[in-house]
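Field guide to reading this record: the first block holds the primary sequence, the second block holds the structure written as discrete tokens, and the final block holds curator observations. Each block starts with its own label. This record concerns Chromosomal replication initiator DnaA C-terminal domain-containing protein, catalogued under organism Pelagibacterium lacus.

BLOCK 1 — SEQUENCE
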Amino acid sequence: MVILHSAERHAKHSISARQGRTCRAIVRAVAGMTGTRHDDFFARSRCPMPTAHARQTAMYLCHVLTGLTMTQVGRYFGRDRTTVAHACAVVEDLRDDPVFDAALDAIERRVTARRCASPATSTTGAAGEARHHGQC
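BLOCK 2 — STRUCTURE
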């Protein structure tokens, strides 16, 4: 059995400066789209449904666009990884709505355009539609 020291465990779950900048850009973009206050994304208490959906959207985008683990995204937002997993499932279900999906695609393009010199790569979603996952 291998026991990781506290510093090793912390390094394993820390995020890079670039990932942090991308997560901050995602929070700003989602806040602008939803009218949610920045501080509400990191509030410790439960929030009204529109705020919770905004936070779930930001968590999903941080996970998808940065490649962060759910544990890392949870730490960034002050939440547990299971909360991030739930957020990702909720947002994936919401992507079935063409209006929501278009808004999410717009945020993805906006965030990836800032951090990538080349265009975002596309993958095909479960329903066969192209999804942009801004991997540089």
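BLOCK 3 — OBSERVATIONS
The domain at 16-133 is CATH 1.10.1750.10 (Chromosomal Replication Initiator Protein Dnaa; Chain: A;).
The mean pLDDT is 81.
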